[in-house]
Design a protein that fits this description.
This protein has about 50 residues and is an alpha+beta fold. The protein contains one helix and two strands. The chain is about 25% helix and about 40% strand. Strand 1 and strand 2 form a beta hairpin. The longest helix is centred in the first third of the chain and has 12 residues.
Length: about 50
Amino acid sequence: MSERSERTRAEKGGSETLVVDGPHMDRRIDLEYEKEWEGTRGRLRSTDARLE
């Protein structure tokens, strides 16, 4: 898939963003996760999370 078509899908609600670290956060979020992929779509399933 081209970068342009992926960006278009994201603009139509085809993706989500999870921020785990940044200047606005006091502590980083450490995640454990499993990737679930089904052809052209997928998700990240969080199995554990903790503050560092």
